[in-house]
């Protein structure tokens, strides 16, 4: 289905171009704007569109002379494919197109926001979007500038092949209207396609004239509908100053296609039957095999893995994908399947015998089946609350939200297995440019590193392993090893010791499967795929034991310097964010100071590591000979095969780089770069230490207070990279000059090997967008957009489900606040940012179907949902106090104490809050400090509640000004259904869709139904309107109610009759207004 959107700048002047109408005939649906035709003239031009059903929206003409303004023409071809049905519909006085295709129902929303009446047009569009479900295609001339705004999370872009996370645009202007439109997109789960699709990768101009060029013709698609988008383009036509935009949708049956990101390999599925019987079956099987008598450790290990496969419930069917079809419902497990089979069995018996006895057996079995299903479903949705409660990081949130994405972009790749093999062979075997290192390998020994592997080490590694992880070639996931009997684990330990003592690993430990994961661009180009590597779980268990020993050795000997925080227990990205922010704020607290930062990006850093240089560096740092020998065995003959739809390719060897998927790789990389800080020199002195750079794995930022020093550091970095085989990616490596204001000097320029390095005004460092003044506006804008998208992703599967309790829905919101909004709040959470509170208002408005004008203070007071700031300041307080107790060598602790000494940044705010609330605290008394900071948080929460209450008590709120202070029977709880909560909420807060609003003084506020000439407010609607008196009698027992009686109704506890009355009365009111146009 091809859809065209085009601002034609007048239809009459297109009559001289026959090719224009030929062009339109290429599309099934067309939306043309600015026809400049008033309604009475439209019929004259229908003859030019013989192949279309037409819908005209007349242009407006305010003066008798001159042309009309605006005008829209919508067209639907009169010969569509048999499985596609389209029709014009009008919703909220907006003409749109309803499409039904391949069991999908969605809306195409043509948009023309007139420049002269933009605010009114946009308000109508906003109301329309709040009424529609999230399956929309919105396109047209929005007369707003968006720049490159709207970055979407990786989990959306990775699964939707059309998209990239960030948008490109040749129009760099962002105006107020653009910000309003972007906020509507976030609220309505709309993803902008301009500048992020295959057909428009650069964000081409859609308006080109002598006055300027811009991107104002936009196409947006609901996130849940992205899988239907085939392509989006900005076309090149010269009929007008605007360029037409085109979106292509496809509705082929997904069963006829292969998914690009299809499941990797057959894997053993851990089932309920395995929980009951696997351990005993494996123990008996192993005892019969006499594994220990073979004398060959590799053969013994193969015997054990084969026994695991044979004893698994689905082991005999391994490799047959048909046995592993996932259920439509995630709660539908093997027990549900079992009772369904029993129900069908009795149904077939009843059909054959047709007597009451077999009928009763069937009904009993079917009732049991339904009972089990309902129980599993309820248990599943109750458990979601706990799952969301555990979420603290955005990655965990997106991983959980992926469960609720019901669509995937489907396509058929034409890339052969051999093409993939050749591509990854070259990628994983780069040419080494560094000189070969020749050295006499020292014979270091270490008692802890070289000792015998124990059962407790294996169990410890198994305890850290996560379930539901993809296995390697042997198809055995962690769950089976976790449930092995102890005698089997002891045999595995014995086998591991044999490998460790001999210094030789089996071939299977060096093998991995690479899965080509599509990124973006042409699906038929190998360059648009990245590899994900999978290694046998038993090999990862062996590596996990080595990893724990390596960490213990590093920590005991203080090998890693404090500037490396990547993949390090007790360290995190926020440590470096906190350190960077504090360092900058301390330096900039002095006048005319600057901090120069070079954010370094290495090209394929993990893949380019010279293994010879790695082992040299490990030996140089004192790692034992025995440990290095086993590492060499793991890396000596690494072999890779590529998964493809045709199967597995032939293996090929790799001799460069660290192994993806190996548990040891991140730490080995950190050890490889461990000498970088010392090598580059310079840096800056602060709080008695010299800070030169901060490293998080391969994310490096070099810091200094002098532009000359920075260039010297860059030169040293370049020399380091040449010596150790690393490459700086200048396209992504940037410099930022942190300063309080003013322009940069023309001498502040830097280069690598004569190539200039770009100086930028914003940079995303470890997931947080920083600017020269450390302002967080851009970061918050992106995080708010992601948070709304995260909430929208769950809406149909969680928020609107009756069987999901209210508390679980709240927990989803809190998890989004923690993982998305609150990221980095350890550094900035002491301040309140009003833009972040918009997410709370958005959630409450959407959950209870409230109008956009609903005041935030009423929403906060009625729900009692705490502010985002109450969470972020807690995170900040807890983080700082935790580091004040940590050893003095930790960077965040050093910088935190310096901030306290200088009374700047967050500590200055602490002192202000303490003075405001008359709370004195001492930094040296940690227990007392915790109590005092808790008191400050309580006072802040109390202050917000008092403010909200004072606003709610304004006289303009006839009812709520008294309800907000009275005792109400709780209705926002797990025992109340969401629909009832919505109606009660609207009634209590005076947010029903009536003519009179509490803040309005308009003469049109009078009741649309009765002739009493009274304001149609909530009190009149519930207690007085004569037209509704019969319904009032039926549901509430009286013809009319006094104000006092209405207040009593709105305080509960008899909510049922009130909800029924308001629902029926609202529907009746809408029907009367629609029928008689009141």
Outline the secondary-structure elements.
Blueprint: E1 2-7, H1 18-24, E2 29-33, E3 52-57, E4 72-77, E5 84-91, E6 94-101, E7 104-112, H2 118-131, E8 136-141, H3 154-159, H4 176-188, E9 190-192, E10 207-209, E11 212-214, E12 217-222, E13 229-234, E14 245-249, H5 272-289, H6 297-311, H7 334-353, H8 356-389, H9 394-401, H10 417-428, H11 447-450, H12 455-464, H13 478-482, H14 486-502, E15 511-518, E16 529-534, H15 537-557, H16 573-588, E17 595-600, H17 611-620, H18 625-636, E18 638-644, E19 647-648, E20 652-654, H19 665-672, H20 676-680, E21 684-686, E22 689-691, E23 693-696, E24 699-704, H21 707-724, E25 734-738, E26 751-752, E27 755-756, E28 763-765, E29 768-770, H22 777-793, H23 795-799, H24 806-821, H25 825-828, H26 834-847, H27 856-863, H28 868-884, H29 891-902, H30 905-916, H31 926-952, H32 960-963, H33 978-988, H34 1018-1024, H35 1029-1036, H36 1043-1050, H37 1055-1076
Parallel strand pairs: 1-2, 7-8, 15-18
Antiparallel strand pairs: 1-14, 2-4, 3-4, 5-6, 6-7, 8-12, 9-12, 10-11, 13-14, 15-16, 17-24, 17-25, 18-19, 18-20, 21-22, 23-24, 26-27, 28-29
Helix pairs in contact: 2-4, 4-22, 5-6, 6-14, 7-8, 8-24, 9-24, 12-15, 16-29, 17-18, 17-19, 22-24, 22-26, 26-27, 27-31, 28-31, 33-37, 35-37
């Amino acid at each position: 289905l091809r859809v065209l959107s085009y601002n034609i700048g007048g239809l009459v002047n297109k009559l001289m171009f026959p090719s224009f109408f030929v062009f339109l005939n290429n599309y099934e649906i067309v939306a043309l704007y600015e026809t400049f035709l008033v309604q009475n003239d439209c019929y004259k031009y229908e003859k030019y569109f013989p192949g279309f059903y037409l819908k005209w929206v007349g242009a407006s003409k305010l003066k008798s002379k001159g042309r009309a303004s605006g005008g829209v023409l919508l067209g639907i071809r009169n010969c569509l494919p048999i499985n596609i049905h389209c029709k014009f519909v009008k919703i909220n006085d907006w003409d749109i197109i309803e499409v039904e295709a391949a069991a999908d129902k969605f809306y195409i929303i043509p948009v023309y926001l007139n420049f002269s009446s933009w605010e009114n047009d946009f308000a109508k569009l906003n109301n329309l979007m709040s009424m529609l479900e999230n399956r929309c295609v919105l396109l047209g001339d929005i007369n707003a500038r968006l720049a490159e705004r709207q970055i979407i999370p990786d989990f959306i872009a990775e699964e939707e092949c059309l998209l990239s996370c960030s948008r490109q645009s040749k129009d760099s202007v962002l105006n107020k209207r653009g910000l309003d439109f972007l906020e509507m997109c976030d609220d309505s789960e709309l993803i902008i396609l301009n500048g992020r699709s295959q057909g428009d990768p650069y964000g081409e101009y859609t308006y080109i004239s002598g006055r300027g060029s811009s991107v104002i013709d936009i196409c947006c698609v609901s996130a849940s509908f992205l899988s239907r988008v085939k392509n989006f383009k900005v076309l090149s036509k010269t009929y007008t100053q605007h360029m037409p935009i085109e979106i292509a949708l496809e509705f082929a049956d997904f069963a006829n296609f292969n998914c690009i990101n299809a499941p990797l390999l057959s894997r053993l599925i851990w089932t309920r039957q395995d929980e009951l019987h696997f351990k005993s079956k494996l123990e008996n099987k192993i005892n019969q095999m006499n594994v220990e008598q073979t004398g060959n450790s590799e053969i013994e290990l193969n015997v054990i893995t084969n026994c695991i496969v044979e004893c698994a419930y689905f082991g005999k069917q391994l490799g047959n994908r048909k046995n592993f079809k996932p259920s439509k419902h995630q709660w539908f497990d093997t027990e549900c399947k079992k009772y369904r089979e029993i129900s069908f069995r009795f149904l077939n018996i009843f059909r054959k015998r047709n007597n009451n006895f077999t009928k009763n057996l069937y009904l009993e079995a079917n009732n049991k089946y339904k009972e089990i299903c309902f129980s599993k479903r309820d248990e599943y949705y109750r458990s979601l609350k706990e799952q969301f409660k555990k979420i603290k990081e955005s990655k965990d949130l997106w991983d959980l939200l992926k469960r609720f994405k019901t669509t995937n972009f489907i396509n058929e790749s034409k890339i052969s297995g051999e093409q993939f093999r050749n591509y990854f062979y070259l990628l994983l075997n780069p040419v080494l440019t560094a000189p070969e290192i020749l050295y006499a390998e020292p014979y270091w020994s270490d008692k802890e590193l070289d000792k015998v592997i124990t059962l407790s080490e294996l169990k410890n590694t198994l305890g850290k392993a996560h379930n539901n992880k993809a296995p390697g070639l042997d198809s055995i996931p962690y769950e089976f090893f976790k449930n092995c009997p102890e005698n089997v684990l002891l045999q595995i330990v014995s086998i591991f010791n044999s490998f460790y003592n001999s210094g030789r690993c089996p071939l299977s430990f060096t093998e991995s499967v690479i899965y080509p994961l599509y990124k973006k661009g042409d699906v038929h180009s190998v360059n648009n795929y990245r590899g994900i590597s999978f290694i046998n779980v038993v090999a990862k268990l062996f590596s996990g034991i080595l990893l724990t020993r390596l960490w213990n050795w590093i920590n005991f000997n203080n090998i890693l310097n404090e500037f490396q925080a990547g993949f390090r227990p007790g360290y995190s990205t926020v440590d470096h964010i906190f350190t960077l922010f504090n360092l900058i704020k301390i330096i900039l607290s002095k006048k005319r100071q600057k901090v120069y930062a070079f954010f370094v990006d290495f090209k394929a850093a993990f893949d380019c590591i010279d293994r010879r240089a790695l082992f040299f560096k490990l030996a140089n740092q004192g790692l034992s000979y025995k440990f290095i020998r086993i590492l060499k065995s793991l890396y000596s003959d690494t072999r890779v095969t590529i998964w493809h739809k045709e199967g597995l390719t032939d293996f090929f060897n790799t001799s460069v780089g660290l192994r993806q998927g190996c548990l040891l790789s991140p730490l080995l990389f950190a050890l490889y770069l461990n000498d970088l800080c010392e090598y580059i020199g310079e840096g800056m002195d602060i709080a008695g230490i010299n800070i030169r750079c901060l490293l998080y794995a391969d994310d490096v930022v070099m810091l200094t207070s002098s532009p000359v020093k920075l260039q010297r550091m860059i030169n040293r970095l370049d020399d380091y990279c040449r010596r150790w085989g690393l490459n700086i990616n200048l396209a992504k490596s940037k410099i930022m000059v942190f300063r309080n204001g003013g322009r940069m000097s023309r001498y502040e320029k830097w280069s690598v090997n004569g190539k200039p390095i770009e100086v930028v005004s914003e940079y995303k460092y470890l997931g947080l967008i920083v600017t020269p003044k450390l302002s967080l506006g851009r970061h918050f804008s992106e995080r708010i957009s992601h948070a709304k998208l995260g909430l929208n992703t769950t809406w149909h599967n969680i928020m609107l489900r009756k069987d999901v309790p209210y508390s679980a829905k709240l927990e989803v919101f809190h998890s989004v606040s923690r993982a998305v909004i609150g990221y980095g709040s350890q550094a900035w959470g002491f301040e309140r940012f009003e833009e972040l509170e918009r997410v709370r208002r958005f959630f409450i408005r959407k959950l209870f179907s409230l109008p956009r004008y609903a005041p935030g203070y009423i929403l906060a007071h009625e729900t009692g949902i705490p502010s985002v700031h109450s969470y972020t300041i807690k995170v900040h307080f807890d983080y700082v106090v935790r580091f004040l107790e940590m050893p003095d060598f930790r960077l965040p602790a050093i910088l935190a104490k310096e901030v306290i000494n200088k009374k700047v940044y967050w500590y200055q705010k602490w002192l202000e809050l303490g003075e405001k609330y008359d709370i004195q605290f001492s930094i040296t008394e940690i227990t007392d400090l915790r109590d005092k900071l808790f008191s400050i948080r309580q006072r802040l929460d109390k202050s917000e509640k008092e403010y909200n209450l004072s606003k709610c008590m304004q006289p303009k709120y006839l009812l709520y000004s008294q309800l907000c202070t009275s005792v109400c029977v709780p209705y926002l709880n797990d025992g109340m259904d969401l629909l009832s909560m919505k109606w009660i909420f609207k009634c209590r807060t005076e947010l029903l869709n009536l003519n009179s609003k509490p803040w309005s003084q308009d003469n049109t506020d009078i009741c649309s139904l009765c002739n009493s000439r009274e304001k149609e407010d909530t009190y009149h609607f519930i207690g007085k309107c004569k037209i509704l008196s019969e319904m009032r009698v039926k549901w509430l027992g009286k013809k009319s109610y006094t104000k006092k009686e209405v207040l009593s109704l709105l305080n509960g506890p008899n909510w049922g009759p009130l909800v029924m009355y308001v629902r029926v009365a609202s529907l009746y009111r809408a029907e009367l207004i629609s029928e008689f146009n009141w």
